[in-house]
Structure formats: C-alpha cells, structure tokens
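Entry type: protein chain
Record version: 2
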Amino acid sequence: MILECGVMEWSEDISKSTTIYYNRRVPSLVWYSLSYFTSISTHYLIHKNKYIVFCWIILFSISLLCVIYLIYKNTQFNCLKPCKNNIVKTLLCITFFMLGQTAPKCDIELGPIPKLYGSLTKPYINYTQKKITDHTQKVTKNESCRGILLAIIIGEKKSLKKETIKAMRSTGAAHIMAVSGLHTGIVISFISLLLYPIIGIKYGKEIIFIITVITIIIYVHITSFTPSVIRASIVAIFILISSLNQRKIVSINLASICSIIFLTINANSLNNLSFQLSFTAYISIILIYSRIKDYGNIKNRILDKIWKLCALSISCWCGTLPLTIFYFKTITPYFLLSNIILIPLTTLATYLYFISAILYFTLKIEFTIINKLIEVILNMIILFAISIEKLPFSQITLY
C-alpha cells in the first residue's frame, strides 16, 4: 500500500453523491477476513494456553444474537441510543455491518475519548502546520510551487491552483498531491536513510524501529489524521514489526487485519472511495505486481528499479481502473509516463524539504541552494503535468 493510486482523496466521501446499498448482502471480503483472523487467533492462543480469544468470541456471539433479534424486531436504527457502553456499541456496529445492514452512527472515532484526545492535540497540530506553512514561504515565493509543496507535505490543498489540480488529474498523478501511502513510504525511507549509520551498533535495529514508529505517529497527526495515511501507517507498522522479528510477511493476512482494524474504527468506511481504492490497489499489488516485477530478469540495477516502479504503477492502475471508470468515467492513458517521472521528482523534493526543515528548525540555518533546488523540482513537476495534459487523449471520457 505504499503507492495508493488515483484520486482517492479528492472524493473522500461518496455517500452523498452515490448511494451504495449493502442491505441483505454480506461483504464477503471483510467476513472472510474476520473469520480467518479469528480462526488463526484461536489456534495460536489455545496453543499458548491463553483464554482471551474465548472472551472475544463470547462477546461477538452475544452481539450477533442481539443484532439478529433487533433486526427481527426492525429496530436496528434506534437500538444504540440508550446504550452508553462504547464496547457494546462497537460490537453491535460491526455485527450490523457484516450482516449487510446499514451501520448506525456509533463509530469509535465519534466517542468521548477520541474527541478528548482530538481537543488536546489540535492546538499542537495547528501550531506545527503553521510552522511548516511559514517555512514553505521561505523555501519558495512561487504560489504554485508552494501549493504543491504544502499538498505533498501535510495534505493542505487550499493553496493549489485549479489549473494544477486539473493537470495532475488528467495525467493520472493526483495521488501525488493527496497525502497517502506514497508519502508515508517517503517519510519512512527518509528516516531509514538518516538512521542507517547506527544499524550496526547494539540494539541499532530496535532504535531505528522505535524512532520510525514515533515518526509515523507524528506524521499521522501532522496530516490531520487523513484516512489514507492512517491505513498506510497501520500497514507500515505491521511490516516494520515483521521485519524486526525477521518474520515473513503474508500479504493477504496483512490486508485482512488492516481492513478489520479500520472497519472497527469506522464501520461505514466501506462507503468511502479512498478505502475502496486503497485496498483494491493493495490487492492488485499482491495479485499482479508480485508476478510481473521480475519479468525479463533485468541485470542492470537502475533499469531494474525503473521496471519495478513501472510494474507497481501498472498493477495499481489495472486494479483500480474499474472503480475510476465507475466513479469518474475517465481513463488516463499516460499514467505510466507520469508516475515514472513525477514520483522520483516528488520523492527528491520531499527529501530536500525534510533536510531544509531539519536545518532550519534545529540550527536556524537557511540553505538557499537547497531551497532553490526544491523550487526548480516543483516547477519541473508542474511543467511536466501541464505538458502531458496537452497531449492528445490525455484524459478519455467514456460516458
């Protein structure tokens, strides 16, 4: 999920424009994921002589029976109003969802604890975002460049010009301007490169792991808890844990547990276009990318990296194509060319901005050369997107 394709954050909630009916239809992927996770957990915990899983199964079974009774009585929309227990609300909400019924508005993220946490952290988040915004003005005076830089770093799109947004959409590179798995991956890779010298010392891997996880959590806060960043962060943390323990990552298991976690936080996320595109892209990577990434057995290291980037873009595009056609009625044929050029440029600009920000906020040093280079790269991104947009059939409207 490091690369989340398309325009997933431009239409974050499609429930208002497009009605999706799940009534009397069980979402098979989520049901399978939960059943699979439960069976594996049961086997593991029984083997370890633990009984936590049995308590979980009993609670879920009770909630299932309650929901079946409430559906029979046809009172599922009002049943949670008198209920003050958040655990019971969550269990009932999940059970409603998996029975194919419309989940009541009782998500965990709307509870008192998340609201309290949000009120405590919001001043610090706003302060950090303001500092970053002020620093981008020092990096570049160009409004278009500053708008793209803010979109890349913290997901702030208010400063973006309509022409830039249109050009990015037409080239299939809108995901560059919406903080997502791509940006989370860039942050993680930057931290890994920065801390690489300490990998050889005692507990070096553990130190890198802790710092990386803390950085991911801070990044989630800075981006105002953007759903795509949260999803990518959950995946990244699981991958980091597996890597630290030297355990093989089973991709479908990772997708399953992440979907369960996110749907537990908000059971109505399945109506969210970003959620649909994210997991469709991830499953496409599992099914397509893993089969074509080593095609041709390229010996040259640089060419091999370029081909793997192409393979990743192709797999994500193919997987999310039905959704983009259904919701946006368009096809972007030049997506591959855009991703090959724009993703490396975006990565380089982000790396340079991180270096500039670290030097400025810690040592109060402004490197004019680095700032100018960032501006040049951002101008290249804009000019390239506009040039691709002017090509024939840059965006094909189907109906």
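Comment: The chain has two domains: 28-101, 112-397.
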